[in-house]
Specification:
- By secondary structure, the protein is of the alpha+beta class.
- The protein contains 7 helices and 9 strands, in the order ααβββαβββαβααββα.
- It has a 4-stranded antiparallel β-sheet.
- A hairpin with a 2-residue loop joins strand 1 (66-79) and strand 2.
Amino acid sequence: MNETTVQEKTDATPAPAADAPAKKPGTGRPQHGQRGRGGDRGGQRGGRDGRRSRRERKPRQRSEFDNKILGIRRVTRVVAGGRRFSFSVTIVIGNGKGKVGVGLGKAADTALAIEKATNNAKRNLIVVPLTADASIPHETQAKYDASQILLIPTPGKGLKAGSAVRTVLEMAGVKHVSGKILSRSKNPLNNARATTAALMKLKAVPSKMKKQEKKVIRKGEGNEQKETRQEKKDVATTQKKKTDK
């Protein structure tokens, strides 16, 4: 009885019609080992293994300012629910050609605090009047809170300074200066801001003061007689007095 029922079932299955349209290649569910539509399209686009080709990114432009971190502090604040931590970053930026700035940034994340400190330093940029030998024109001194800084030009003797004073001078491009911390403060932020305050007091030396007194050449009887402008004025005044008498 079982054999007859199986035979009847096999005979009952309809045979495929001869006029039925054949399935197009690539339609329907992909078999094992074959790619779907996405793979076919990716292969037509010329990508590697059906993947899309990546776009070439333009190189990032490097900033003209270099930065150096003076210190990172973790600040703890006690609240009703417990403690909350934040970070305070002090940073110095400069281009080594006379521009320098000191900034402070506070945030819950270190990276965000550094970004805030950099933006703050860019807002506080100053321009230092440098001489031809990368020194300062004259001696200067300044005080910020408890910090007091003295800067003395030392042409040809290099940079002699320490702590945050050296960092600020290096970022500004100063090479021949002696820096002295007159106070007992060891706060790097106050020392750095006192240094920038001292650099802001510098005044550019006029070009006529840089050069020596010009000498006026007056030709005589075959000989050249050199006199300064001041001597020439004195001679003119004496001659005028004689004529008045």
